[in-house]
Design a protein that fits this description.
Blueprint lengths: L4 H10 L5 H13 L5 E2 L3 H8 L3 H14 L2 E4 L11 E4 L3 H4 L7
Antiparallel strand pairs: 1-3, 2-3
């Protein structure tokens, strides 16, 4: 899968379901994504870049996962400081938004 940052961001921004904190969090994830749409920013980094506290960021991540905009690959063991992997997907699967081809 070849991931296009601009197409992903365009699809997320145009989605009526992704607003507020979820949109801010999605933007941070897209900015950190590699060529396959994977990224590894810590919760603290997402908080710093969005200016939001822990619970709203966690809620936004869960909302994005529920909407099908991303898959969260959770770290095993639950040790403090472990970073989850986020895999961005095509948000149009549940929102009807189609990303413009680039």
């Amino acid at each position: 899968m070849n991931f296009n940052v601009l197409s992903a961001l365009n699809a997320i921004v145009r989605s009526e379901d992704v607003t507020g904190v979820a949109l801010e969090v999605a933007t941070v994830l897209v900015q950190h994504a590699d060529a396959q749409g994977r990224c590894f920013p810590s919760l603290g980094r997402i908080q710093r870049l969005t200016g939001r506290s822990r619970n709203p960021v966690r809620d936004a991540l869960n909302k994005l996962e529920h909407l099908g905009a991303l898959v969260i690959v959770r770290s095993k063991g639950g040790t403090h400081g472990q970073v989850h992997r986020y895999e961005l997907t095509c948000p149009q699967a549940r929102t009807g938004v189609v990303a413009d081809p680039v």
